[in-house]
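Weekly modeling sync, notes
Attendees: AB, CL, MP (scribe)

Item 1: holo prediction request
CL wants a bound-state model with magnesium ion before deciding which constructs to order. AB pointed out that an apo prediction alone won't tell us much about the pocket. Agreed to run with the ligand included and paste results into these notes for async review.

Input as submitted:
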Amino acid sequence: MAVARPVRALALAAILLWFFFIWQLFTPSSPRPKPLGSLERDPNLDPTGEPEGHLVYASKDYAPGPAGTARINATLLALVRNEELDGMLQAMRDLERTWNHKFNYPWTFFNDVPFSDEFKKKTQAVTKAECRYHVIPKEHWEVPSWINNDLFKESAKMLEEQKVQYASMVSYHQMCRWNSGLFYKHPALADMQYYWRVEPKVHFFCDVDYDVFRYMQDNNKTYGFTINLYDSPQSIPNLWPETLKFLAEHPEYLHERNAMNWLTDKDRRPEHNKKANGYSTCHFWSNFEIADMSFWRSKAYEDYFNHLDRAGGFFYERWGDAPVHSIALALFEDSSRIHWFRDIGYQHIPFFNCPNSPKCKGCVTGRFTDGEAFLYKEDCRPNWFKYVGYG
Ligand SMILES: Nc1nc2c(ncn2[C@@H]2O[C@H](COP(=O)(O)OP(=O)(O)OP(=O)(O)O)[C@@H](O)[C@H]2O)c(=O)[nH]1
Ligand SMILES: [Mg+2]
């Protein structure tokens, strides 16, 4: 039986459509780099070189030991558990390969319990630089006396109902509090000014040929970040109201070139701002930080941290060191002293900073995440670029 030509064409079109549909269904949802939004272009796609300003390169004056006279008072710093040894070794190998084998800055490891001999032996084996191991004093780690344990448990239950991760894990709250306001008070850091925070399992992808600590010092920078994100508003409902109370008591701490508009933006994610009671929730992702501890040691930050600590939100909510550090920097520091290290290729699961540079290997240029597509909206860099710039 002959089939009319139009009917054959229709059948063919239907078959093709069917194959197209199946292909769409089964191709993996590729986490290709996506643009930041309408009219925005991810600057990581643009060719990236070294930052402007005075740079100091490797030389024999950075040799390990006393011969390394060019090193300034700075250290690589990690709070880590003995059980995270493998992840720590991997992160160390990445950072040694891309940067520290040229500069040999010491590593300083902190733990709430003593480090095992295995931890010490294996970490020292992956670097020529000196490794130092310290236990955190009890009074810096313990839950403070004014925290009520029943109230903590009750609050943790409510936070967990709202899907706040790690809400009932006391040590997570202790870690966030220590990273917020106590690490730089450890006696082992008394003579240190700068640190580069490193977590187990993070990755570094790009060769960096200048001394980043000298970059901070010589170019008058206080804080360097790579990734800038939204936070879960459920974990910090009272952080901003407490901050406003503090500001009302201390208007003198507000810097005239602050980044208040980055902190209070409500255009991009109005719901976040609403749930966090006026805070955009934008923050520098603090698992990576290169910073000058003089800022944390200033009177403004000390007063702010004590105010927050007394308010109890490190335990009754789940205030992280990332929003706490970020709010303080954006309010009390000149925003031009906060630097985006766009040239440092970095990953902490599930987010990346991956610049367009021949010095980078192992990450996809401009890729922000390799996780689910919904994670793209966690990117708060566009607001930083909009309100402060690319510096
Ligand atoms: N010594 C010690 N280190 C801790 C403790 N809790 C967390 N840390 C360290 O603190 C840093 C942050 O902890 P993470 O568990 O990675 O927290 P996170 O990055 O918010 O969570 P993930 O997304 O799961 O990585 C890591 O370097 C951990 O090794 C603790 O109780 N003791
Ligand atoms: Mg982590």
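Recorded for review: Confidence is low (pLDDT under 50) at residues 24-35.
Action items: CL to compare against the apo run; MP to circulate these notes.
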